[in-house]
């Protein structure tokens, strides 16, 4: 066991930026208006389970199709790069939304909004660089934050206002862009060694 507060904090911030639960508050509120009620506990737990399962099984799936973690991390850095561009420039490169009142807490909230392609790719990319136990703690901390944000989304939106949410998105976008570049440069070196 190699618990490292710095690693936990770094991974937490990366996942927090990728999941962008604060930036997704307008989508959460819109979903709540359309379906009436969102089960915050269910959405948070399912998203956490998906992320932890992918953290453990993702590498085996990659090995099965003959891809190493460093190659996946380089690919992941491109996804992070584009997510960061979306956040900074306020553009939407890809967003698929489908609202079903019966399953809104699971789809699209838990997957793909919280545990989506970006966060799953990020987890495998992070696994190439950080210790597993620190990543798991970071996932759990993020799930707790997600739960709190989902429970208090209306209050947070009122408090921050549209401009506050935009500023937070842009700040995390810049952080994510820097992380994407670091992930790319670190793993591209490994591929050419």
What does this structure look like?
Helix 3 packs across helix 5 and helix 3 packs across helix 6. This protein has eight helices and no strands. It has helices at 5-19, 25-35, 40-64, 69-89, 105-114, 117-127, 132-151, 153-191. It has one domain. The protein is an all-alpha fold and 193 residues long.
Shape label:
globular
Order of helices and strands: HHHHHHHH
Count structural domains.
1
Helix content: over 70%
How many β-strand runs? Answer: 0
Distance between the termini: 28 Å
Q: If you average the pLDDT, what whole number results?
A: 86
Radius of gyration: 16 Å
> Mind describing the biggest β-sheet?
none
Derived from helix and strand composition plus strand pairing, the structural class reads mainly alpha
Q: Count of DSSP helices? A: 8
Write the layout of secondary structure elements.
Elements: H1 5-19, H2 25-35, H3 40-64, H4 69-89, H5 105-114, H6 117-127, H7 132-151, H8 153-191
Q: Can you summarize this structure?
A:
The chain has one domain (38-191).
Supply database-style keywords.
mainly alpha, 8 helices, 193 residues
